[in-house]
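Hey team,

Filing this mostly as a record. A colleague (T.K.) asked me to run one chain through the structure pipeline before their review meeting, and I want the input and output archived in the tracker in case anyone asks later how it was produced. No errors, nothing strange. Just documentation.

Input sequence:
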Amino acid sequence: MTAKLLRGLVVVVVLATTGIVWLAGPAAAKGPANTQISGVGTFVADTEEECTEIDDLYTLRMTGSLEGCWYTTVLNVVQETPSGIYQERGVETFKGCLVEDGVDVACGEFTTTYHFTAKYAPDGSEIHGRCHHPIVSGAGDFDGATGRVDFKDDVVTGDFDYRGHIKLA
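Output structure:
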């Protein structure tokens, strides 16, 4: 084999190897994937004995991808108009577990900020409402978690359907 041909083969092998490493590198560097979540939150009445760890105005029992309790602390009303438009902001804390296929994947708590927007009828009944909650901090298995949970109010049943994503650290 000539030296020129041998150098050419070395270059091809190096490029091929580098290409394989380059292709594998970004996939390995991505880290944990986003977990898509969905489920339902139901209002916890004051007479119930569950979800009492935090004294707040609104507490939900979460089922689905999130199993546990969701506590709401209203910080301020941003807007309330005579036409029924209402907006508020606050902080919420989830205490419980992220569940996939019936198995607890992560347990602990995370805190979100939220922005709630709704429209109310003159009699005070809700016509529609929704809110979004970016995760801002966590503890336990949720330490360093990022993501967002979005709720849409079901004004017929009084439930709060949610969906979103969580990326564990």
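Quick notes for T.K.: Strands lie at 35-43, 58-64, 66-80, 85-100, 103-120, 126-140, 146-153, 160-167. The two ends are 53 Å apart (CA to CA).
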